[in-house]
Amino acid sequence: MLLVGRRGGTGKPGGRPARRGAARRMTDDIQPAPAPPRRGPAPQTRRGADVHDPEGVRLQKFLAQAGAGSRRACEEMITAGRVTVDGEVVTELGVRIDPARQVVHVDGLRFSVDDQMVYIMVNKPKGVVSTMFDEQDRLNLADMVGPREERLFHVGRLDLDTEGLILLTNDGALAHRLQHPSFGVQKTYLAEVRGPVKRDLGRNLRAGVELDDGPVTVDSFRLVDSKPGYALVEVVLHEGRKHVVRRLLDAEGYPVLKLVRTQMGPLVLGDLKPGKNRRLTRGEVQQLMAAVGL
What we know:
Number of strands: 17
Radius of gyration: 21 Å
Largest sheet: 9 strands, mixed
Helix content: 10-25%
């Protein structure tokens, strides 16, 4: 049986315009204290420009509504210089902002208030088609989440026989960046193959394997488990080509017996059961956005 473990991750910060709406209704709030570690460069900040909007909402009130912490904690974050608005460090408590047009970060994580955006993690079972509709009436991703008012996009695809993590969302900007290879979002897979695995397999995959549509390299590879006639390997890459993990391992002489995607950027499948789904926490959404510079 293929075992799916937990792994974590962080992303690189950035910014994009916030949207109107009530505070997101998600299961967890992320507390920015202390400042989280970053893989990428810190967000660019400037000093001097006036971000104050006299008709707007007080910055500390906005942050509290967005789940950054209590009003008092948000005031302390501002005075400590941990908050930026449109790239400007804000340290004054009297600043008002317009959440619909201004971008707010705390310790490099973007905060917004919008309950219209939906982010759902699905553990796709084998035999489910990675579409929201299937003309052949096969079981598809829409069947995994049931009828919904929003039009959801699936982020990437998994072939019919591959299981694991798929994200459904109506956030088109996030979906695009998560899928585009230029943003370098890594995907982690656990593959069951027939063992034993040769010792230079990882080195070969990292060096690059020539496939019929061009060379492919993996970001990392490790042997997770090995028994007589069986091996479980982990492959991490940011390529998005069709059947790329299966083709890579097959090219090296290890046809895949079972394949599960366990992670996408900082988003981890964890113990979510096949066929089940859950909404992302506020912290998970923020980490995904930071990973693609939103």
